[in-house]
Every structure is written in C-alpha cells, then in structure tokens.
Design goal:
By secondary structure, the chain is mainly α. It has one domain. The chain is 86% helix and 0% strand. The radius of gyration is 16 Å and the shape is elongated.
Length: 121
Amino acid sequence: MEARRWLFGILVVISSAAFISGMVAHGSADTQMSVYSVAAWPVYLLTYAWMKADARARGSTPPPGAIPLIPVLLQVAIPYYLLATRRRWHKVLSLCLLAGYVGIGLMLLDLGEFVGQWLVT
C-alpha cells in the first residue's frame, strides 16, 4: 500500500503544477515550462521513493540503472523497472496499468490548466 501513496503523490504534484501553470502562464510557453521544470524534481523524488517502496514490498531491489535513469529519461526508467521486476504476464499487466496511470496524469494536467485559467479570467 505504501507504494500507492507515492504514486498518488506524483499525481498531486502534477495537478498542482498544472493548476499553477494555468493561473500564471496566461499563454506564455516560457512561464509554463518554468513551472513544470520546478515540478519535475518532486516528481523525480517521488518516483525514486515509489521504486524503492515497490521493490521493498516485492522483496527485491530495483534493477541496475533504473534509479540513475529517473532524472535523465523518466519515460524509459519506469517501463524498464516494471519489466525487470515483474514476472511473465504481470509485465503486460503492469505496462497496461502504466498506460492508464499516464492517461490519468494527462487528464489531470489538462484539468488543472483549465481550472487555473478559468479562475484567473
């Protein structure tokens, strides 16, 4: 259950960053990118905490290279971790759940930006 809390924390950071971006960016791509670059570091830390908690719950350690990949190539680090730590059909299930999680994150990003812009105007 502890690993799920870290995943929830990532969604909270993404939602908060999107909301703030919607309130302060006003169509400026530079301001929007600044907000998201500040929010990236908490996402990296929460992803690290999630990997460690998930590995601890499974009685293993993260595969070599997964942790250093987080700040460099997050999009590669997570599938690599999932494929290296799951067995057989659980690999496919984990990747499907990852796709759903990313979809929820993207939806929260759009919703946060919309609400932030709506409150300002």
